[in-house]
Write a structure and sequence with these properties.
Layout (H helix, E strand, L loop, with lengths): L4 H12 L9 H17 L37 E5 L4 E4 L2 H9 L1 H4 L8 E7 L6 E3 L4 E4 L4 E2 L2 E2 L2 E3 L2 H10 L4 E4 H6 L3 H5 L11
Antiparallel strand pairs: 1-2, 1-3, 3-4, 5-8, 5-9, 6-7
């Protein structure tokens, strides 16, 4: 953390005077002390933010999916993200490509490994919130298509997933680990580029 020049002067004066200040300097001393307290409180190391639970920043306009190469920011309602301990991230234009990536991280991750992953995020279908991919429920086989065709549609609750399945001719509801162990056939076979059906 960089210390402002005024703060450095304040600390130097304090050191020279043994911690005592003339009355005229007390307002300045108080203001600088409060500034230092705020800087420490707002610094990332002191903020108490767990990178594994902090919502990731959205992809930039030039961020591409490491699996299919598509520009991810064009499809905000489908974004999935993997974050790493060093603060870097990979973004995907759908859950399907996310799971393909997870099936072989060294292949798609440019030297990354599965153990490097700190958090995995998907975009909830109804409210577009970023949710923990490991806790989400996924509907497969529905009539809603993503940027890469058939998708696993993520939901924060099983109840929402069930309602969507009934409304959109879904076939199954799967958890994260179920998809990892036995990916749906359309995940393995891929899918053509179709206009997405979000919001139907």
């Amino acid at each position: 953390m960089r210390v402002p020049k005024t703060m450095k002067k304040f600390l130097a004066v304090k050191a020279l005077t043994g911690g005592a200040f003339p009355p005229a300097l007390l307002p300045l001393a108080l203001a600088l002390t409060l500034t230092l307290v705020l800087l420490l409180a707002l610094s990332p190391a002191k903020a108490g933010v767990d990178p594994a639970t902090a919502t990731p920043a959205p992809p930039g306009p030039q961020d591409t999916c490491p699996v299919c190469g598509m520009f991810v920011a064009k499809y905000p309602q489908w974004i999935a993200t993997v974050t790493y301990g060093d603060g870097e991230a990979h973004h995907f234009d759908g859950v399907k490509d996310l799971f393909r990536y997870l099936s072989d991280v060294p292949k798609w991750g440019q030297g990354r490994h599965a153990e490097d992953i700190q958090a995995i995020w998907v975009t909830e279908y109804y409210n577009l919130a970023r949710i923990d991919a490991r806790k989400a429920w996924y509907v497969v086989g529905s009539d809603v298509l993503g940027p890469m065709g058939h998708e696993a549609i993520p939901f924060a609750t099983r109840e929402d997933a069930q309602a969507f399945l009934e409304d959109h001719d879904g076939q199954r509801i799967l958890g994260f680990d179920e998809i990892r162990k036995d990916p749906p056939q359309e995940f393995r076979a891929g899918g053509p580029h179709h206009p997405h059906g979000h919001g139907k």
